[in-house]
Every structure is written in C-alpha cells, then in structure tokens.
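Technical note accompanying the year-one report. For the benefit of new consortium partners, we illustrate the data format agreed upon in the data management plan: each record pairs a sequence with a structure-token string. No post-processing was applied to the example shown here.
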Amino acid sequence: MSGEEMQRIDEVPGESPRRFSRRTLLARGGQGAAGLAALSAGGGLGLSLAQGGVAQAATTAPTLTPAGPPFGRYKTLPQIVPPYLQVTDFGTDLAQGLVMLTPSPLPTGRMMSTAQAVAAGLGMTGVQITNPNGTLVWFHPVNGLATNLQVQTYRGKPVLTYWAGKIVSGIGYGNGYLLDTGYNPVATIKAGNGLQVDLHELTLTPQNTAIVTAYRNRAADLTAIGGPAQGVAIESVIQEIDIASGKVLFQWNSLDHVPVADSYAKAQGTGPQDYFHINSVGLWDNNHLIVSSRNTWSAYLIDRRTGAIVWTLGGKKSDFHIGPGANFEWQHHIRRLGQKQMTVFDDGAVPVEEPTSRGLVLDIDETHKRVALAKAFIHPARLLTYYEGSVQVLPNGNVFVGWGTEPYSSEFLPTGELLYDLRFPTNDQSYRAFRYPWTANPSAPPLISLDKDQIGGYALHASWNGATDVASWQVLSGTSTKNLEPVAVVPKSGFETVITTHAQGPYVAAAALDVHGKRLGVSNPVRI
C-alpha cells in the first residue's frame, strides 16, 4: 500500500464472461432463499433455508441487495454484515482448507459510514473466514481496518493471527492479535521503542517471537528522488518481539542499510517521503529474513542477528542475473518456497510497469546468483493490481493468489489453469487472501433467535459464529430451562439455519451436532 492508494477507487478492468457452478448458488448469503423442507426425527417440521439465489452468467458484478435496518442479514447476529461473495468453481481439484480474508472498502470508500458501506453491499470491515463455496464461517468486526488473517503456530498450537488499526497514506498504526481455536485472545503484539505495528506483516517464528513492520520519520537527503537535501524520509523498520514479554529482541532500520538513491519512488510534495515501503518479511531460514521493499523493487536477504544485507535481488543494485520474465516491480508478499524457490506477488503498478499483475514462482540459484521464472499465474481477466496482493503455494501444489485492490482471490493448478475464483463486490478488497485448514469450537455458545409465524409455529434461527464442525442442529424443548428434551434435528444450512417447529416449550434451545451426532455446544434457552 502507498500514499496514492488513499486517493483512488479502482474499477475492475474488463471482466470476461464466466460460467458458474452449483457453488455459486451458495455464495451470495441473504439474497433470496431456496426452501428445503424435511420431516425431523422428533415429528416436527424442519425448514432449512439455503443461502442461495439464481446464478446467471454475467460480465459484471452481481446486483447486491442492501441489508435492512439496522443491518439485519442474520437474526442471531444482526450486528455483523460481511460482504456478499460470488464464487466461480471450474474444477474438483481444489486444495483443502477455508478461505481467510480481511474485507474492507477501497480507500475512498473507507470514508463511508458502516451503514453506508452495508447499504452499498460492501459489508463491514473485519476479519472473515469462509467455506470455499462462499458461505460464512466466522466474522469479527474491527475498529478501523484489518489485514493478514492467517493460521500460524504459537507454542506448538494453531492460532489465528491478524493486524487491526488505522491506515494513513498506506501506513498502518495498530497492533497484532492472536486467537486460539475457541477465538479467545492469546496475545496482543505491540511494537516497542515508541513505534506502532504496521499493517504489512505479522510473522510468528518457532522461537515464539513475532516479526512485524513499522514506520518512522527520519532526516535524510532526498535529492536523489527529487526532494530537498535536508528532507525527511519515512523509514521502514523491522522488529522481532518476544510475544510473552513484549521485549524487542531485534530491530532493523532501512536507512542504515539502503540509501534513498535506490528508490524508484519520486518525491511527492514537500512532506516526508516513503522511499522504501517495506511490505513483507518472512523467514528464509533460522538465521535470515527475506524482506520485500515495494519502492526499490527489491528483495533483501537480511542476517537475523546483525541486520546486514547478505544479498539483494532486483532493483538498481541486484546481485542476481534475472532471467526473462523473472523481473518484478512494486511487488508484495515475498516468501521462500522449499530450498531453491521463492514466491512473489508482482503488482507491476503503480505507476504501471507491466500490462498485468502476476503471481510468481521463481527459481533461485544463490551460488551462481541467478534467478529464473518457474511459473507465472495470471488471471484470465488480466487484472492489474495497483497495491497489495499475495501468493500462497498450498499443500497439494495448487497456488492461491489474492489480488489485493482487485476484488478477487483465485486458486490455480500448478500448470496455471484457473480452478476457483472468489469475488468481492466492486470497490471491496482484501489486503492478502489465504487458504488454511482450520478447526475451531468457539468458547461462546451458539445463538438462537425466535420468531412466531402466522399459523402458530415458530421459526428458530440458529448460528454459531466460527464453528467449523457443525453438521446439524437439534431443537430442544421443555417446561423449564433445566428440563429440555430433543424434538427435532435439521441439517445445517449456511451460516444461519432457519428451523420451523411446533415445539410446545415454553422454553426452547438449539444444540450444534457434528457429523456423528455428537453435541458440540448448546445455546442459551429462550422462552416462546
């Protein structure tokens, strides 16, 4: 992200016609309903409403239905409104795992109120997990904006990690957050030495530390980029922080190692200039970090102890011979892949240097200092991403690409064939997008909401925000809150399942069951 990002809203460049699979029918939660009636084991009538609508081939974004006041998409959780998602599935060879997103309007859209964004179909800003078919698994609104929702390991256990805070001219001011498999807070990552954690990176290490980025102003000679000799540079900073204690174990400052003259960015105005713009830091091995600088078009291998640059790949002072097609400009999200490869999201803009953005897999020969293109993943619509983006090689070899400011997340075969596309509404985005296996049993109980119908029955709405293993809902009814018996079982349908029942009560509750009928959690009872 950069300062220019805060001043524009992108329209999606020429979309090509696309076909839709059955998955699309499930991808637009809340738009219409297809009814499925089933007689429950308890003799009551169960009505399960799928979150689908009629899918039609289209060359533009779907028409989105604004949520009613105040938001109203889910009876059980009216305070959350994730964006509508459209899914196109071209094949059956998808990797396992859920999709991790951090939806937010594009920069100018961020000036809208939450209600305005919801009415426009963009949804709320937050962290979001969805099934591959686009149905919601978990949504958590945040104050400000969020980035980098992913699954990592802390103290040997899986955790969700993300950043949340405010973004000003492409720089984040906030904290990192860790949640356990019950969505309970594990740790909050704060920067040290008077800085705040930036939006671009939150990498956990086997040593139970967090590697984060930050920014600060520092006096510098900016004449090489068209600025004043006595100017102010926006310096990029890396900190490695002990998660348990919050102690800063390591700090790297870009101006100590990379001069302003290496930048391709030109001075804008008379204020501080973002000459480096760090946007990813990953582990190369136990002793080195791989760092991406957007504005120098370079990847740097940095000694994790001394901070010395071991080599530079790309940019004005590359130590590598770069083969045909292996170049990148204004790139994001560099990661090591195996022993001899790395992945890069090559934005190619902005300013525009390439006709389309690409997810790259590069062959790296550190001995002879050569880099060659192994594979480039290009969207059929030839998307040109101005900022952001990510590339993730999945366990089965498929490649998952988040297109940043373009509202797509895509899965490709290793050969480059597009298998899967998930699309936000126009003018919505996710800084990065990932797929991970994730199993969670929320510590909070399931939620229910009860509506009386016109013929003496009741519509019971049931959901469990974040639960991954619910297969069906069991309706419980009784004369007291401590005397509830099962009266019906209905298959789960989407994020929120609607069940019609004639249970006498006067108290009812809902129990979440797994595929084996094991009870995972029970809602608090409500009185009919």
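Partners are asked to follow this layout when depositing records. The radius of gyration is 25 Å.
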